[in-house]
Amino acid sequence: MTFHITREQLYDLVWSESMQNLSKQIGISDVAIAKHCRKLGVPTPERGYWAKLQAGKKVERKPLPPRCLGTFNRVEISGTLTSDLRRRIVGEPGEDASEVEAIDVLEERFRRRLGKVTAPRGFSNPHPAIAKLLRKDEELRQKYVESPYPWNKPRFDSSFERRRLKFLNGLFLAFAKVGGAPSLRGDDARELSIHMGDAGVSFELDAIGKNARRGGRSEPEAADRLYFEIGGGSIAGVTTRWEDKLGSPLEEMLTEIVIGLAVAGEHRRRRWLAEHAAWLQKQREEQVRQELRRKAEAEQRERERIAALQKARSDALLSDAVAWRDADTIRAFVAATQAALAGAQPPDKIEAWVQWALAEADRRDPLASGRISTVVAERESEESSPA
Questions:
Q1: Are residues 170 and 47 in the same domain?
Q2: How far is residue 299's CA from residue 293's CA, in Å, rounded to a whole number?
Protein backbone atom coordinates (compact mmCIF):
# COMPACT_ATOMS: atom_id res chain seq x y z
CA MET A 1 0.00 0.00 0.00
CA THR A 2 1.03 3.61 -0.54
CA PHE A 3 -0.13 6.97 0.73
CA HIS A 4 0.66 10.61 0.02
CA ILE A 5 1.74 13.09 2.66
CA THR A 6 2.61 16.78 2.57
CA ARG A 7 5.75 18.46 3.81
CA GLU A 8 3.99 19.85 6.90
CA GLN A 9 2.39 16.49 7.68
CA LEU A 10 5.72 14.65 7.43
CA TYR A 11 7.26 17.26 9.72
CA ASP A 12 4.52 16.68 12.32
CA LEU A 13 5.12 12.92 12.20
CA VAL A 14 8.92 12.91 12.51
CA TRP A 15 8.71 15.27 15.49
CA SER A 16 6.02 13.20 17.22
CA GLU A 17 8.02 10.01 17.76
CA SER A 18 11.44 8.50 17.17
CA MET A 19 12.27 7.56 13.59
CA GLN A 20 12.70 3.90 14.59
CA ASN A 21 9.22 3.64 16.12
CA LEU A 22 7.70 5.64 13.29
CA SER A 23 9.24 3.39 10.65
CA LYS A 24 7.83 0.26 12.33
CA GLN A 25 4.30 1.67 12.28
CA ILE A 26 4.52 2.75 8.64
CA GLY A 27 6.28 -0.42 7.54
CA ILE A 28 9.42 1.09 5.98
CA SER A 29 12.97 1.68 7.20
CA ASP A 30 14.03 4.77 9.14
CA VAL A 31 16.56 5.37 6.35
CA ALA A 32 13.68 5.66 3.86
CA ILE A 33 11.88 8.16 6.11
CA ALA A 34 15.06 10.23 6.44
CA LYS A 35 15.40 10.20 2.64
CA HIS A 36 11.86 11.55 2.25
CA CYS A 37 12.65 14.26 4.80
CA ARG A 38 15.73 15.37 2.86
CA LYS A 39 13.73 15.44 -0.37
CA LEU A 40 11.08 17.70 1.16
CA GLY A 41 13.51 19.82 3.18
CA VAL A 42 12.06 18.62 6.49
CA PRO A 43 14.43 18.92 9.49
CA THR A 44 14.68 15.87 11.73
CA PRO A 45 15.51 15.52 15.45
CA GLU A 46 19.22 15.31 16.16
CA ARG A 47 20.79 12.18 17.62
CA GLY A 48 19.85 11.77 21.28
CA TYR A 49 16.85 14.11 21.05
CA TRP A 50 14.29 11.57 22.30
CA ALA A 51 16.53 10.29 25.10
CA LYS A 52 17.06 13.86 26.34
CA LEU A 53 13.34 14.56 26.10
CA GLN A 54 12.51 11.42 28.09
CA ALA A 55 15.09 12.39 30.72
CA GLY A 56 13.44 15.77 31.11
CA LYS A 57 16.33 17.69 29.58
CA LYS A 58 15.86 20.78 27.46
CA VAL A 59 15.63 20.04 23.74
CA GLU A 60 15.13 22.20 20.69
CA ARG A 61 12.58 21.49 17.99
CA LYS A 62 13.89 22.78 14.69
CA PRO A 63 11.25 24.81 12.85
CA LEU A 64 10.12 23.83 9.37
CA PRO A 65 11.83 26.21 6.92
CA PRO A 66 9.46 28.23 4.76
CA ARG A 67 8.69 26.74 1.40
CA CYS A 68 10.50 28.09 -1.67
CA LEU A 69 9.82 27.80 -5.38
CA GLY A 70 10.76 24.30 -6.40
CA THR A 71 10.48 22.81 -2.91
CA PHE A 72 8.84 19.40 -2.94
CA ASN A 73 5.59 19.69 -1.02
CA ARG A 74 4.24 16.16 -1.29
CA VAL A 75 5.69 12.68 -1.34
CA GLU A 76 4.34 9.18 -1.94
CA ILE A 77 5.35 6.67 0.74
CA SER A 78 5.15 2.89 0.33
CA GLY A 79 3.65 1.87 3.63
CA THR A 80 0.61 2.28 5.85
CA LEU A 81 -0.62 5.45 7.54
CA THR A 82 -2.20 3.94 10.65
CA SER A 83 -5.18 5.54 12.36
CA ASP A 84 -2.90 6.62 15.22
CA LEU A 85 -0.50 8.37 12.82
CA ARG A 86 -3.46 9.82 10.93
CA ARG A 87 -4.60 11.61 14.10
CA ARG A 88 -1.23 13.37 14.43
CA ILE A 89 -1.48 15.28 11.14
CA VAL A 90 -3.67 18.20 10.11
CA GLY A 91 -6.03 17.80 7.16
CA GLU A 92 -6.41 14.96 4.71
CA PRO A 93 -3.20 13.00 3.96
CA GLY A 94 -1.44 14.55 0.98
CA GLU A 95 -3.65 17.64 0.93
CA ASP A 96 -2.10 20.95 1.99
CA ALA A 97 -4.11 22.36 4.88
CA SER A 98 -1.84 25.35 5.56
CA GLU A 99 -2.42 28.79 4.12
CA VAL A 100 -0.94 29.06 0.64
CA GLU A 101 1.67 31.80 0.33
CA ALA A 102 1.50 34.27 -2.53
CA ILE A 103 3.73 33.34 -5.46
CA ASP A 104 5.35 36.79 -5.25
CA VAL A 105 6.58 35.93 -1.75
CA LEU A 106 7.99 32.60 -2.93
CA GLU A 107 9.60 34.29 -5.93
CA GLU A 108 11.42 36.82 -3.76
CA ARG A 109 12.61 34.05 -1.45
CA PHE A 110 13.84 32.07 -4.47
CA ARG A 111 15.58 35.12 -5.95
CA ARG A 112 17.61 35.61 -2.76
CA ARG A 113 18.52 31.94 -2.66
CA LEU A 114 19.49 31.85 -6.33
CA GLY A 115 21.64 34.97 -6.58
CA LYS A 116 22.96 36.19 -9.92
CA VAL A 117 23.25 33.59 -12.68
CA THR A 118 25.83 33.90 -15.44
CA ALA A 119 26.39 31.73 -18.48
CA PRO A 120 29.86 30.13 -18.47
CA ARG A 121 32.15 31.16 -21.30
CA GLY A 122 33.48 27.66 -21.77
CA PHE A 123 32.91 24.07 -20.73
CA SER A 124 35.49 23.72 -17.97
CA ASN A 125 32.72 22.85 -15.51
CA PRO A 126 29.91 21.31 -17.56
CA HIS A 127 26.68 20.02 -16.11
CA PRO A 128 26.59 16.19 -16.42
CA ALA A 129 23.89 16.38 -19.12
CA ILE A 130 25.97 18.83 -21.16
CA ALA A 131 29.17 16.82 -20.58
CA LYS A 132 27.41 13.78 -22.04
CA LEU A 133 26.51 15.74 -25.19
CA LEU A 134 30.08 16.98 -25.56
CA ARG A 135 31.49 13.46 -25.21
CA LYS A 136 29.08 12.15 -27.82
CA ASP A 137 29.97 15.03 -30.14
CA GLU A 138 33.67 14.25 -29.78
CA GLU A 139 32.99 10.63 -30.72
CA LEU A 140 31.12 11.83 -33.82
CA ARG A 141 33.98 14.16 -34.70
CA GLN A 142 36.44 11.27 -34.71
CA LYS A 143 34.03 9.14 -36.75
CA TYR A 144 33.59 11.95 -39.23
CA VAL A 145 37.34 12.10 -39.85
CA GLU A 146 37.35 8.41 -40.72
CA SER A 147 33.95 8.35 -42.48
CA PRO A 148 32.80 11.82 -43.56
CA TYR A 149 29.14 10.94 -43.92
CA PRO A 150 26.47 13.51 -42.95
CA TRP A 151 25.14 11.36 -40.12
CA ASN A 152 28.61 11.32 -38.53
CA LYS A 153 28.87 15.09 -38.46
CA PRO A 154 29.14 16.61 -34.96
CA ARG A 155 25.96 18.36 -33.81
CA PHE A 156 27.48 21.22 -31.84
CA ASP A 157 30.42 22.49 -33.86
CA SER A 158 28.88 25.72 -35.14
CA SER A 159 29.27 28.93 -33.15
CA PHE A 160 25.49 29.10 -32.72
CA GLU A 161 25.23 25.57 -31.31
CA ARG A 162 28.23 26.15 -29.02
CA ARG A 163 26.60 29.31 -27.72
CA ARG A 164 23.33 27.45 -27.20
CA LEU A 165 25.07 24.70 -25.22
CA LYS A 166 26.87 27.26 -23.05
CA PHE A 167 23.54 28.89 -22.28
CA LEU A 168 21.99 25.51 -21.40
CA ASN A 169 25.01 24.71 -19.25
CA GLY A 170 24.55 27.91 -17.25
CA LEU A 171 20.82 27.24 -16.90
CA PHE A 172 21.31 23.64 -15.77
CA LEU A 173 24.05 24.54 -13.28
CA ALA A 174 21.83 27.26 -11.82
CA PHE A 175 18.96 24.85 -11.30
CA ALA A 176 21.28 22.20 -9.88
CA LYS A 177 22.24 24.77 -7.24
CA VAL A 178 18.61 25.15 -6.10
CA GLY A 179 17.59 21.50 -6.39
CA GLY A 180 16.22 21.45 -9.93
CA ALA A 181 16.69 18.52 -12.28
CA PRO A 182 17.11 19.30 -16.00
CA SER A 183 16.15 16.90 -18.73
CA LEU A 184 17.13 16.92 -22.39
CA ARG A 185 16.44 14.44 -25.15
CA GLY A 186 17.21 14.11 -28.81
CA ASP A 187 20.53 14.09 -30.66
CA ASP A 188 20.41 17.86 -31.07
CA ALA A 189 19.16 18.52 -27.50
CA ARG A 190 15.89 20.16 -28.57
CA GLU A 191 13.53 18.40 -26.14
CA LEU A 192 14.13 20.33 -22.94
CA SER A 193 12.50 20.53 -19.52
CA ILE A 194 13.24 21.39 -15.91
CA HIS A 195 11.79 19.56 -12.91
CA MET A 196 11.64 21.46 -9.64
CA GLY A 197 9.90 19.93 -6.69
CA ASP A 198 6.46 18.74 -7.72
CA ALA A 199 6.47 20.62 -11.03
CA GLY A 200 7.96 20.05 -14.45
CA VAL A 201 8.21 22.74 -17.12
CA SER A 202 9.21 22.28 -20.75
CA PHE A 203 10.92 25.03 -22.72
CA GLU A 204 12.46 25.86 -26.08
CA LEU A 205 15.87 27.39 -26.74
CA ASP A 206 16.59 27.96 -30.41
CA ALA A 207 17.11 30.41 -33.25
CA ILE A 208 14.33 32.89 -33.90
CA GLY A 209 14.32 31.75 -37.53
CA LYS A 210 16.54 31.71 -40.61
CA ASN A 211 14.04 33.61 -42.72
CA ALA A 212 12.31 35.85 -40.18
CA ARG A 213 10.68 38.79 -41.92
CA ARG A 214 10.07 42.25 -40.61
CA GLY A 215 8.57 45.02 -42.74
CA GLY A 216 8.64 42.75 -45.78
CA ARG A 217 12.43 42.35 -45.65
CA SER A 218 14.24 39.13 -44.98
CA GLU A 219 16.53 39.10 -41.95
CA PRO A 220 18.97 36.19 -42.26
CA GLU A 221 20.75 37.32 -39.08
CA ALA A 222 17.70 36.14 -37.13
CA ALA A 223 19.04 32.62 -37.64
CA ASP A 224 21.72 33.44 -35.08
CA ARG A 225 19.43 35.17 -32.61
CA LEU A 226 18.40 33.08 -29.63
CA TYR A 227 14.97 32.94 -28.06
CA PHE A 228 13.86 31.16 -24.91
CA GLU A 229 10.20 30.23 -24.43
CA ILE A 230 8.46 28.37 -21.62
CA GLY A 231 6.10 25.67 -22.89
CA GLY A 232 2.55 24.96 -21.83
CA GLY A 233 0.95 28.21 -22.89
CA SER A 234 0.91 31.72 -21.48
CA ILE A 235 0.47 32.54 -17.79
CA ALA A 236 -1.25 35.75 -16.77
CA GLY A 237 1.25 38.26 -15.40
CA VAL A 238 4.27 36.02 -16.02
CA THR A 239 6.91 36.53 -18.73
CA THR A 240 7.30 33.29 -20.66
CA ARG A 241 9.43 34.39 -23.64
CA TRP A 242 12.80 36.13 -23.93
CA GLU A 243 14.97 36.77 -26.98
CA ASP A 244 18.17 38.47 -28.07
CA LYS A 245 17.81 42.21 -28.43
CA LEU A 246 20.19 44.81 -29.76
CA GLY A 247 22.80 45.36 -27.05
CA SER A 248 21.09 42.85 -24.75
CA PRO A 249 21.92 39.19 -25.47
CA LEU A 250 19.89 36.38 -23.95
CA GLU A 251 22.75 35.54 -21.58
CA GLU A 252 22.13 38.78 -19.68
CA MET A 253 18.58 37.61 -19.00
CA LEU A 254 19.60 34.23 -17.58
CA THR A 255 18.77 35.09 -13.97
CA GLU A 256 15.26 36.23 -14.91
CA ILE A 257 14.81 33.17 -17.11
CA VAL A 258 15.69 30.80 -14.25
CA ILE A 259 13.27 32.66 -11.97
CA GLY A 260 10.64 32.69 -14.71
CA LEU A 261 10.90 28.92 -15.12
CA ALA A 262 10.54 28.41 -11.37
CA VAL A 263 7.53 30.76 -11.21
CA ALA A 264 5.91 29.02 -14.19
CA GLY A 265 6.47 25.68 -12.47
CA GLU A 266 4.71 26.97 -9.34
CA HIS A 267 1.75 28.17 -11.41
CA ARG A 268 1.56 24.80 -13.14
CA ARG A 269 1.81 23.03 -9.78
CA ARG A 270 -1.00 25.08 -8.26
CA ARG A 271 -3.19 24.56 -11.27
CA TRP A 272 -2.60 20.81 -11.05
CA LEU A 273 -3.34 20.85 -7.31
CA ALA A 274 -6.58 22.75 -7.91
CA GLU A 275 -7.60 20.30 -10.62
CA HIS A 276 -6.61 17.36 -8.41
CA ALA A 277 -8.54 18.78 -5.45
CA ALA A 278 -11.59 19.26 -7.68
CA TRP A 279 -11.22 15.67 -8.90
CA LEU A 280 -10.94 14.39 -5.32
CA GLN A 281 -14.02 16.39 -4.34
CA LYS A 282 -15.95 14.86 -7.25
CA GLN A 283 -14.75 11.42 -6.16
CA ARG A 284 -15.95 12.06 -2.61
CA GLU A 285 -19.29 13.37 -3.85
CA GLU A 286 -19.66 10.34 -6.10
CA GLN A 287 -18.88 8.05 -3.16
CA VAL A 288 -21.58 9.81 -1.12
CA ARG A 289 -24.05 9.42 -3.99
CA GLN A 290 -23.18 5.74 -4.36
CA GLU A 291 -23.56 5.20 -0.62
CA LEU A 292 -26.95 6.95 -0.64
CA ARG A 293 -27.94 4.86 -3.65
CA ARG A 294 -26.82 1.64 -1.93
CA LYS A 295 -28.71 2.64 1.20
CA ALA A 296 -31.88 3.46 -0.76
CA GLU A 297 -31.63 0.15 -2.64
CA ALA A 298 -31.11 -1.74 0.62
CA GLU A 299 -34.10 0.01 2.19
CA GLN A 300 -36.20 -0.81 -0.89
CA ARG A 301 -35.15 -4.46 -0.69
CA GLU A 302 -36.05 -4.51 3.00
CA ARG A 303 -39.46 -3.00 2.30
CA GLU A 304 -40.04 -5.59 -0.42
CA ARG A 305 -38.90 -8.37 1.93
CA ILE A 306 -41.27 -7.21 4.66
CA ALA A 307 -44.15 -6.86 2.18
CA ALA A 308 -43.49 -10.35 0.82
CA LEU A 309 -43.29 -11.75 4.36
CA GLN A 310 -46.53 -10.06 5.36
CA LYS A 311 -48.28 -11.40 2.25
CA ALA A 312 -46.96 -14.89 2.95
CA ARG A 313 -48.24 -14.67 6.54
CA SER A 314 -51.61 -13.40 5.37
CA ASP A 315 -51.90 -16.15 2.78
CA ALA A 316 -50.90 -18.76 5.37
CA LEU A 317 -53.44 -17.37 7.84
CA LEU A 318 -56.26 -17.58 5.31
CA SER A 319 -55.13 -21.06 4.31
CA ASP A 320 -55.11 -22.22 7.95
CA ALA A 321 -58.53 -20.66 8.54
CA VAL A 322 -59.96 -22.48 5.51
CA ALA A 323 -58.30 -25.73 6.63
CA TRP A 324 -59.73 -25.30 10.15
CA ARG A 325 -63.22 -24.69 8.72
CA ASP A 326 -62.87 -27.69 6.37
CA ALA A 327 -61.79 -29.87 9.31
CA ASP A 328 -64.93 -28.88 11.25
CA THR A 329 -67.05 -29.55 8.17
CA ILE A 330 -65.50 -33.02 7.87
CA ARG A 331 -66.22 -33.74 11.55
CA ALA A 332 -69.81 -32.61 11.16
CA PHE A 333 -70.15 -34.75 8.06
CA VAL A 334 -68.72 -37.77 9.92
CA ALA A 335 -71.25 -37.32 12.72
CA ALA A 336 -74.10 -37.03 10.22
CA THR A 337 -72.89 -40.10 8.36
CA GLN A 338 -72.73 -42.14 11.58
CA ALA A 339 -76.29 -41.19 12.38
CA ALA A 340 -77.53 -41.95 8.87
CA LEU A 341 -75.85 -45.35 8.65
CA ALA A 342 -76.62 -46.53 12.16
CA GLY A 343 -78.04 -50.08 11.82
CA ALA A 344 -77.61 -50.12 8.05
CA GLN A 345 -73.95 -51.15 8.03
CA PRO A 346 -71.85 -53.39 10.25
CA PRO A 347 -70.48 -51.31 13.13
CA ASP A 348 -66.89 -52.37 12.49
CA LYS A 349 -67.02 -51.14 8.88
CA ILE A 350 -68.51 -47.80 9.89
CA GLU A 351 -65.97 -47.38 12.71
CA ALA A 352 -63.00 -47.89 10.38
CA TRP A 353 -64.27 -45.23 8.03
CA VAL A 354 -65.01 -42.86 10.91
CA GLN A 355 -61.47 -43.20 12.27
CA TRP A 356 -59.98 -42.50 8.86
CA ALA A 357 -62.23 -39.49 8.23
CA LEU A 358 -61.56 -37.96 11.67
CA ALA A 359 -57.78 -38.49 11.22
CA GLU A 360 -58.03 -36.66 7.89
CA ALA A 361 -59.87 -33.80 9.63
CA ASP A 362 -57.17 -33.61 12.32
CA ARG A 363 -54.46 -33.65 9.66
CA ARG A 364 -56.07 -30.67 7.95
CA ASP A 365 -56.87 -28.82 11.19
CA PRO A 366 -53.96 -26.42 12.11
CA LEU A 367 -55.04 -26.53 15.75
CA ALA A 368 -55.39 -30.28 16.13
CA SER A 369 -52.20 -30.99 14.15
CA GLY A 370 -50.16 -28.50 16.20
CA ARG A 371 -49.11 -26.71 13.04
CA ILE A 372 -50.36 -23.37 14.33
CA SER A 373 -47.91 -23.54 17.28
CA THR A 374 -45.02 -23.91 14.87
CA VAL A 375 -46.26 -20.97 12.78
CA VAL A 376 -46.55 -18.71 15.87
CA ALA A 377 -43.07 -19.70 17.07
CA GLU A 378 -41.55 -18.97 13.65
CA ARG A 379 -43.19 -15.55 13.55
CA GLU A 380 -41.84 -14.65 16.99
CA SER A 381 -38.36 -15.72 15.84
CA GLU A 382 -38.59 -13.58 12.68
CA GLU A 383 -39.73 -10.51 14.61
CA SER A 384 -36.96 -10.82 17.20
CA SER A 385 -34.13 -11.35 14.67
CA PRO A 386 -32.48 -8.30 12.97
CA ALA A 387 -33.31 -7.62 9.30
A1: no
A2: 10
